[in-house]
Amino acid sequence: MTALEEKNSDITLAISNLDMYYGAFRALRDINLDVHRNAVTALIGPSGSGKSTLLRCINRMNDLVPGTRIEGEILFNGENIYAPGVDPAEIRLRIGMVFQKPNPFPKSIYDNVAFGLRINGFTGDLDEAVERSLKRAALWDEVKDRLKSSGLALSGGQQQRLCIARAVAVEPDIILMDEPASALDPISTLAIEELMRELSHEYTIIVVTHNMQQAARSSDWTAFMTMGEDRSGYLVEVGSTHEIFTNPKEERTEGYITGRFG
Description:
Number of strands: 10
CATH topology: Rossmann fold
CATH class: Alpha Beta
């Protein structure tokens, strides 16, 4: 394997010259970002800088918003997810999403986890798949005796881990997390952070967070985004989390991390 091939094998997602529009408004401009396989990449930056919008581009959820338009490309394992003929539903299956507010379905714990498997025609052992997913989400020991209870009866932190179990059940390649711990107490937040680290051994994770300590603790790579005068979000700097937090190249990055602005 050549050095270039080895480098590319480490990149699961390559975003090139990405502009994203809501109607005439350009929400993202000239985003270039390589996402490393089996690592946690944190997107940080002030509100309005396009972090969540970028996540929704990555799994084509912005397709559901009328008037959106994409320029540039997002290569997922070398294939452009916006190429003609690509099925957005297939992309969303392979690139899962966990939202800011836990959103379990009004179903049992078991049926929450099994939902995606059932609608995608899973023919294996459903009980085994549910148990495996709950274990991956570090929730099995807490719920194994009440799988038929409503997922809505769980605590906030447990609900978020249930949503993570639901996401991993369909065996995605990438898990997107949009501020997954912002609505949780400190203990639940630490549990989610530890879970992200564990899951990164099997999955590629991209997380949006406003919590600088969380980004520093939980991620391998950090990308700092901000907003231009035209209110479009753009990428200022990306690097290893250690480098970004100890020796950022850009003054704007240092100013945000140290709390001087944003």
